[in-house]
Amino acid sequence: MTPPAILFVDRDGTLIEEPPDHQVDALEKVRFMPGVFAALQTLRRRGYRLVMVTNQDGLGTDSFPQAAFQAAQTFVLDTFAAQDIMFDAVFVCPHFAADGCACRKPNTALVEAYVRSHGVDLAASAVVGDRDTDMQFAANLGVRAVRVRLGGTPEETWPAAVRGLTARRARIERRTRETEIEVHVDLDATAPTRIASGIGFFDHMLEQLARHGGFALELHCRGDLH
């Protein structure tokens, strides 16, 4: 069986908008992020499995009752399920940062058992989140980090995340004592095409291959060409 590729997805600020008080404890505070439904549907079709990982400061205290959180959380999960978007697992850290727990992102204790028991393909997996702690969580877990946030750059949106996570591209570098070769191929783009092998006829043939094949190709060679 092929090891699963997992998207570890943050909730507040990534799946749903984060309210000014940073606490989603009522249904009227739930607003889904632009493009999130189409994005997750596409990513699931591409083979990603979804795991929600969220810090919820002080969950279970008088200021943030479990029942208030659960009502909003159930609504969020049911709404996604109605769009055929299922989460394999949901992990919630209820602690404050000052508590110094091991489960609060960017720490990884919350998901370590899941990763081990499911044989997760970390090289093919990613974290999607809005905060620097999500980016560090990805680094600590050893997976790719993708930032999605409201009011961010055009590359920090769900459509951009889909493009990045589903792109068919590769970059290979080979270095010896005599030669350095760098190749970048992107099957989902038509440009750029930049070929510099040092051999004119070979450059021309590769340019034609990329142009008529409809993909982007960059090749740079330096060193001994004989």
Automatic annotation (TrEMBL):
Record-level Gene Ontology MF annotations: histidinol-phosphatase activity; imidazoleglycerol-phosphate dehydratase activity; metal ion binding
Organism: mine drainage metagenome
Name of the protein in question: D,D-heptose 1,7-bisphosphate phosphatase
Localization annotation: Cytoplasm
Pathway annotation: Amino-acid biosynthesis; L-histidine biosynthesis; L-histidine from 5-phospho-alpha-D-ribose 1-diphosphate: step 6/9
Any one biological process term the GO annotation gives: L-histidine biosynthetic process
Assigned keywords, A-Z: Amino-acid biosynthesis, Carbohydrate metabolism, Cytoplasm, Histidine biosynthesis, Hydrolase, Lyase, Magnesium, Metal-binding
Family in the record: Belongs to the GmhB family.
Alphabetical list of PANTHER family matching this protein: D-GLYCERO-BETA-D-MANNO-HEPTOSE-1,7-BISPHOSPHATE 7-PHOSPHATASE (PTHR42891)
GO cellular component annotations of the record: cytoplasm
